[in-house]
Amino acid sequence: MLTLLRRPPREAGATSTFYVLTAVAASAFAMCFTLNLVFQYRVVGLDPFQMVLVGTVLEATCFLFEVPTGIVADLYSRRVSVIIGFLLVGVGFAVEGVVATFAAALVGNVLWGIGYTFTSGALQAWITDEVGEENVAPVFTRETQLDLAFGVVGTLVAGVLGLVNLRVPVIAAGAILVLLAVGLWVVMPERHFHPTPRGDRETFGHMREQLVAGLRIARRRRVVRVFLLVSLLVGLASEVFDRLWQVRVLDTFAMPAVFDGDEAVAFTVFALVGTMVSLGASLASGRWLPQRLVDSSPGLPVALAMLLQVLAVVGVAVLGNLWLVLTCVWLRSAAMAFSRPIESTWVNRNLDGPTRATVLSLNSQANALGQVAGGPPLGALASWASIPVALLVSAVVQAPSVAAFLRVRHVVGGAPTGRPLEPFLEE
Questions:
Q1: 375 in Cβ contact with 55 (< 8 Å)
Q2: What is the pTM assigned to this prediction?
Q3: N or C: which end of the chain has fewer CB within 10 A?
Q4: Pairs from 41-47 (Cβ < 8 Å, separation ≥ 24)
Q5: How remote is the C-alpha of 325 from its chain's centroid?
Q6: Residues 165 and 264 sit within 8 Å (Cβ to Cβ)
Q7: pLDDT for position 427
Q8: Domains and CATH numbers, the chain
Q9: Which residues of the chain have pLDDT under 70?
């Protein structure tokens, strides 16, 4: 079976294939995700705990299958890995949309989680091999532009299809990704693949070595400890918000008359506004924030952004006006977009080249573990008590992140200074 996938019947150019793939995938993902949570709540009938559990299963699947699926891309073929990945993601979406039960949601998310791990890393490695490292930077820049543009297109299409039935955009997204996989089998070239050397392959042994090396670096560098702690706290707190803020809106407020009370139209508009606000915040971070402040005291804007995130979660939990709640949702997204490039610059300046990938990988793993550990308890709390209570608890969990960033807010000559991190990071 895998041999049949190795060579395309009609080979196309790598760059043009990559651009078309990016546009189609961005549209399909936006079509599915814009109204997916509304679909799960209104059509499937999931309760808050079940909704959070579905997200936790997805996170756990991605975490567990990242290494096994990477073997295909490392040893056999990146083209094959990408095709299998999009096929599984599409089937996962379709199963969830067609069957529309709690069990189908779990199975569908497991399938698309495994599919995502097949594409994760393999797609970027494939295009880098095909065009060459020296030529790939402008390709990735255009990829980002296409991803944003066609994400908006997919969001609009989701709103239109959602007027028919909330399951339609989910099923349509799955069908599009299955067709994308078929199209890639026909035209996707692979002329420059070479198996990854044994020492560079992602294995469970390699992950264990990364963990040990990352913890060793964290013991020596305070900023690294802060980022690992914050990633864990954010992971513990974020799953319940990401999965339940829409349910909070649906349970508490009627949709505005301007949308004729239609939830599909309303949440499509909410998503578009959120995208534009986040994009504006990201641009503001790079253009308006004084570079001197970013260079010398990056912890100040990052801590402020983290504080805004915590306050926004509290606002979603306690406010009784729809537009104020939505403002808090958009504020949280904007704060995350604003701080992300600053955080990335800050942590990379405190890492040496050989250790950078190790620490960044460990940072992602800490966030994933936090989501897996924090999602079910907070989801159960949302079902047992209420969603506002669970959101308030998640805000309390994330709040120490503000103090952690403030206590290492200065950077002088690439080395962090500031007050000791106790009691947060005591050795």
A1: yes
A2: 0.84
A3: N
A4: 41/246, 41/247, 41/250, 42/166, 42/250, 42/263, 43/100, 43/165, 43/166, 43/167, 44/100, 44/101, 44/102, 44/104, 44/105, 46/102, 46/105, 47/383
A5: 22
A6: no
A7: 29
A8: 2-201 (1.20.1250.20), 205-417 (1.20.1250.20)
A9: 1-6, 8-9, 195-211, 213-214, 286, 288-296, 348, 350-358, 360-361, 409-427
